[in-house]
Amino acid sequence: MNRTKILLTIALAFTVFGAGAQTYVVTQEHKDRAAEIVRKMTLEEKIAYVGGYESWYIREIERLGLPAIKMTDGPQGVRNNTKSTLYPSGIAAAATWDVDLINKMGVSLGKDARARGVHILLGPGVNIYRSPHCGRNFEYFGEDPFLAGEIAASYIAGLQSQRVMACVKHFAVNNQEYARHSVASDVDERTLHEIYLPAFEKAVKKGKVATVMTSYSVVNCVRASESEYLNQKILRDLWGFDGFAMSDWNSCYSPVNVAAYGVDLEMPSPRAMKPELMKRLVEQGVISEAAFDRKCQNIIQTLLAFEFDKGPQLDNNLPENNPECDAVSHELARAAIVLLKNEDNFLPIKKGRFFVCGPNVDKVVTGGGSGHVTPVISSSVAEGVMQMGNNVKATVLVDGAFDNLNGIFTDKTFTTKGVNVEIYSNLNLEGKPAETYVAEKVFMNNAAVEAHEDIVLQNISSRHSFVYPAKKTETLNVTVRGNDGCRLYINGERVVDEWYRESWNNGTIEYTFEEGQTYEFVVEHFNRGGTLGLSLSFVQPLREMLSQTKGLREADCVVVCLGHTSDSERENADRTFELPDGQVEYLKEIVKINPNVVVVLNGGGGIEMASWLPDVKAVLMAWYPGQQGGVAVSEIITGKITPSGKLPISIEKTWADNPCSENYYENVDRMRQPSINPYSRVEYREGVFVGYRGYERNNVEPLFPFGFGLSYTTFEYSDLNITEDGGEFVVSFNVKNTGKVAGAEVAQVYVGDDQCRLPRPAKELKGFAKVYLKPGESRPVSVRLGEEAFRFFDPAVRAFVVEPGSFTVHVGSSVADVRLTGSLTVR
Question: Which of 112, 186, 242, 248 is catalytic?
Answer without folding.
Answer: 248
